[in-house]
Amino acid sequence: MKFHPLSLDNACLITLPKEMIMAQTPTMRAAIARQIETGSNKLVMDLHQVEYIDSSGLSILVSAHKLTQQRSGEVILLSPSAGVRALIELTRLHHIFTIFEDKDAAIEHICAQ
């Protein structure tokens, strides 16, 4: 997982790993929570590398959403694979997350607010 600050001080692009599974959940959740607590309340979660995500991986996205909402922020999802997108839609999370396929458009959206 990699954190890339964006042009807006409180915005960050987070590139997620190939797998988001239960074994990694505590570490990933803590790292993202730290990023939010240090002032990044607008996150672009880049899912283009994610090949597999389980329910605990989805819970990381939901936790980040809740934390940023408490700080008047937002989480948007970028480039989920077909399988990951299907799971997001199956769990109806596409109703709470904005999903972008284009990285520049996602960054423009998050930095314009």
From TrEMBL:
InterPro entries documented for this protein: Anti-sigma_ant, STAS_dom, STAS_dom_sf
Domain of life: Bacteria
Domain named STAS: residues: 9-110
Annotated PROSITE patterns: STAS (PS50801)
Gene3D superfamilies recorded: STAS domain
Family, per entry: Belongs to the anti-sigma-factor antagonist family.
Database matches in PANTHER family: ANTI-SIGMA FACTOR ANTAGONIST TM_1081-RELATED, ANTI-SIGMA FACTOR ANTAGONIST TM_1081-RELATED-RELATED
This protein's name: Anti-sigma factor antagonist
Organism field: Shewanella eurypsychrophilus
Biological classification of the source: Bacteria, Pseudomonadati, Pseudomonadota, Gammaproteobacteria, Alteromonadales
